[in-house]
Amino acid sequence: MLSLLSLTGISVLVVCFHVLELLLDDAAMPRGIQEAPLGKVSFSVFGSFGAAMQVILIFYLMISSVVGFYSSPLFIRLLPEQHDTTMTKIIGNCVSLLVLSSALPVLSRTLGITRFDLLGDFGRFDWLGNFYIVFLYNMLFAGLTTLCLVKKFTWAVQAELIRAFGLHKLPLPVTRSQQPSKLS
Question: Cα(61)–Cα(122) distance, rounded to whole angstroms?
């Protein structure tokens, strides 16, 4: 759990740093690198450690994208079942994983996690040169990821504090929602 928290925090920090780069320097736009021979130009400011961190963050983005895809209410029925998966589900899973894996280089370039072109012209899309789209995409990623972190960890801490102080036993006027509370 701590590794997930740290990887998510690091990815948000990298994206926030990329947003600052976007605001201050036009060269931070995720366009393709022209004439950058391999080994002559460093793709990471922090050298080997930065390159290893980029690889770890890209794998984290890949895994979190797949988990998020299969957790969404629209695609939860596509989840394979042991000894009971139809050929249509298998084909749907293959197509879904192909689309997710094809979008990963563009995602990592747009978020500023890496500047490396992964065997293709992923940095040559026209919309990657549009400042407003890239800036909004980075801000949405940073904002929504931070919101998820705050929601996940502060609600757990809040529930434990309420239990520790015995506040869950107090008769407080609370409007009931459709779902039962987890505190009782």
Answer: 17
Give SS3 for 38. strand
d(CA 51, CA 34): 20
Task: Find residue 38's DSSP bridge partners.
Answer: 41
Whether this prediction's pTM lies above 0.85 is answered by no
In the chain, the percentage of residues whose pLDDT exceeds 90 is 8
For residues 43 and 116, what is the distance between their CA atoms, to the nearest angstrom? 6
The answer to whether the CB of 60 falls within 8 A of the CB of 15 is: no
Check: CB of residue 122 under 8 Å from CB of residue 106: yes
Whose tokens are 């002559």? That residue is 40
pLDDT tens string 53-85: 888 888 888 888 888 888 888 888 888 888 888
**Cα–Cα distance measured from residue 11 to residue 55, given in angstroms and rounded to the nearest whole number:** 12
